[in-house]
């Protein structure tokens, strides 16, 4: 049995289907029916791309690989799991994938990442200046700011 994950947008009048599949699902449900809902807010793909653009620019500025900068940021921001081995404890960076973090968790991670970047990688910048620079880099509008 496949699990449907239809998307809806909340409006002042209720939930509005975002796709044909969601519209069909809603239309096939009799009015007054009780349904179970698994509630989540999907991640903002543009916000995720902003993070990676930021990591890429930092890697370029300091002469490092993007993946390495990404791992350092995750470790220094506390986004890791500790594993005990026979030789001691090891910190393993956690995933920031869409399946592993919701939007609120990613926002918190991004905020922590900006602090780490400004404190350890680009100490000449304040987090607010860093945000402005990444928004300018990507041509973000006021409504899309991070």
Structure report:
The chain has 146 residues and is an alpha+beta fold. The strands form two sheets. The chain has a two-stranded antiparallel sheet. It has a two-stranded antiparallel sheet with strand order 3-4. It has five helices and four strands, in the order E-E-H-H-H-E-E-H-H. It is 47% helix and 14% strand. The radius of gyration is 20 Å and the shape is elongated.
What is the H/E order? EEHHHEEHH
Low-confidence stretches: 141-145
The main sheet comes to: 2 strands, antiparallel
Mean pLDDT figure: 86
Beta-strand residue percentage: 5-15%
Gross morphology: elongated
What is the β-strand count?
4
Radius of gyration: 20 Å
Cα separation of the termini: 38 Å
Strand order of the largest sheet: 1-2
Work out the helicity level. 40-55%
Structural domain count: 2
Which structural class should the secondary elements be placed in? alpha+beta
The helix count comes to: 5
Give a short synopsis of this structure.
It is built from 5 helices and 4 strands; from the N terminus they run ββαααββαα. It has about 150 residues and is α+β, with helices and mostly antiparallel strands.
């Amino acid at each position: 049995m496949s699990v449907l994950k239809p998307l809806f947008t909340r409006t002042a009048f209720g939930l509005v289907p975002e796709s044909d599949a969601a519209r069909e699902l809603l239309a096939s449900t009799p009015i007054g029916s009780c349904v179970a809902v698994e509630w989540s807010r999907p991640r903002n793909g543009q916000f995720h791309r902003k993070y990676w653009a930021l990591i890429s620019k930092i890697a370029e500025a300091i002469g490092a690989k993007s993946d390495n900068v990404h791992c350092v940021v995750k470790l220094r921001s506390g986004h890791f799991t500790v594993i005990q081995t026979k030789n001691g404890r090891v910190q393993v960076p956690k995933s920031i994938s869409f399946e592993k973090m919701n939007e609120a968790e990613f926002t918190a991670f991004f905020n922590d990442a900006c602090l780490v970047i400004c404190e350890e990688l680009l100490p000449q910048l304040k987090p607010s200046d860093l945000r402005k620079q990444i928004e300018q880099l990507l041509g973000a509008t006021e409504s899309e700011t991070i």
